[in-house]
Amino acid sequence: MTDLTTASGIPVPDNQNSITAGPRGPVLLHDFHLIEKLQHFNRERIPERVVHAKGSGAYGSFTVTHDISKYTKARLFSEVGKQTATFLRFSTVGGEKGSADTERDPRGFALRFYTEEGNWDLVGNNTPTFFLKDGIKFPDFIHTQKRDPQTNLKSAENMWDFWSRAPESLHQVTILFSSRGTPDGYRHMDGFGSHTYSLINAEGRLHWVKWHFKTLQGIRNLSAAEAVRLAGVDPDYAQRDLFNAIAQGDYPRWSVEIQLMDDEQRAAWEARTGWDAFDLTKVWPQGDFPRIKVGILELNRNPDNYHAEVEQAALSPSNIVPGLGYSPDKMLQARLFAYHDAQLYRVGANHQHLPVNRPRCPFHNQQRDGAMAIANGGAAANYDPVRSGGPATGGFGHGDAGWHLEGVAGRYDTRATDDHFTQAGNLFRLLDEEGKRNLVTNIAGSLSQADAVTQDRQIAHFLRADPAYGHGVAEAIYALANKG
Predict the structure, then answer these.
(1) Composition bias, kind Polar residues: at what positions (predicted)?
(2) Strand 107-115 to 55-64 pairing
(3) pTM, entire model
(4) Most CB atoms within 10 A, among 43, 138, 231, 465?
C-alpha cells in the first residue's frame, strides 16, 4: 500500500486520529493534515453546469472511411484510413447532476477531436433541431425547464406557457415527446451537430454542412412507463450501460455523415421553401440534401477519474480547426460566446491546461498567469509584436473568403411570418400509429398540468401542424380529465 502524504508530499503519520490536548480534546489547530483534509473536502465540488449537468463520457477514435478532402482542407479528413483521437460527453439537458438518466429530455452529444491542428469541438444534441432560433431567449427558456423560484419544483405550466408562446419550438417539442425523448441509454441514439456549420477547401470554397452521427447499435427507446420505472430503481442507467459496455469490449460505434449545400443551392432552396438554412428549428430534408458518409466514430476507453475527465471536460463550439467554420446561425453565434465563458467561470481561466482539455499538438500563445497556470510559457515572450500587412491568409477564420452580409444592423423579429408548422407536421405524419399514440399520450400527460388557456394556445399549434395531431392531443387531455 502506498504511504499517505499531504498534497505537498509530506508523510502523514496518522490518518485515524486528530491531534488533541489530551485524549478527549479539544482538537489543536496545528494539526495541518486535519485542516488540509477538511479544507479540500469543502472545495471538492466545482460549480455545476447550468445545463447538461448530468453526464457520462468516454474516449475513442474517429476513422475516415470516405474522402471529403474536396470539401475541406482539415487535416483530420486528409486521407481514408486516418484516425483521430476523440472524447465524447453525453448528458441530459435540464436536470441537476443527481437527476435520473431516463428523464424525458434532449441528450447532449458533445464530441472533441484531438487533431494535429488543435482541438475541434462539435457540441450538439441527439436531435437535429432545437426549441429556439435566437440565443437571446435561451436563458428564459432554460429557466422554464428548471425549478420555479417560489416552489422550487419543476413546473409544467412554465414550460408549456413558454412553448405555447413560441411556436418555433413546435418541431423540437414533437421530437421531445415522441419515443425518442426517452432513449434507451446513450449507445442507442443518434447524434447531431444540429447547427449549420461550414467546410472550407484548399481553394477557399465554402460549403454549408450539417453533421450526423448514426448509431450502429440501432435506435432503441424506452417507453414512458419504463423510463419512469428506471428513474426510480436505477437513476444512473445510461452511465452504467455505457461504462459497462466499454469495459466489456462492446465498443459503441456511429457512422459519421454530412449534408452539404453550396451558397447557390442555399439561395435556391430558401426561395423555394421559405425556410432559412441557418434556422436551428428546421432540418434540411434528406430528399433534397442526402447524407454523405465520412467515417466511423468508436468509443473504446472509459475515463480513469470521472471528476478529472468528465466533470472538468470543457468543450465549446468556438473550437474549430482550419478547414472548418461557423455560419450565421443566431443560436450558434450565441453559443460561440456562452460555452467558453461558462467554462471560464466553472473550471477556471486555465481549463485548457487540464489533460482532458489540452490539445495533443504543440501550442503557443501569450496567455499567462491566473489560477492553476500549469503551462505558463516559461521565458517565452508574453506578447506578440505588431505586424503590418494583416494575416497572410486573408479573409477571416481559417482562410475562407468570408460570408456576404446585407441589410441594416438592428433587431429583426421574423416569428410572425416564419413557417413553424410544416416540418413538425411532416414529422408527425412520418410516425406509425403506435408512434402517434405515444406522442399524443406523452404530451397530454404533461400539458394537462398547465392551465386551460395555455392548453388551448398550444393545441392550436398542433392543429396547424396537422389536424390529427391537435385533435389527438385534445382528446387525450379530455380523457385524462374525465378518467374514472
Answers:
(1) 1-20
(2) unpaired
(3) 0.94
(4) 465
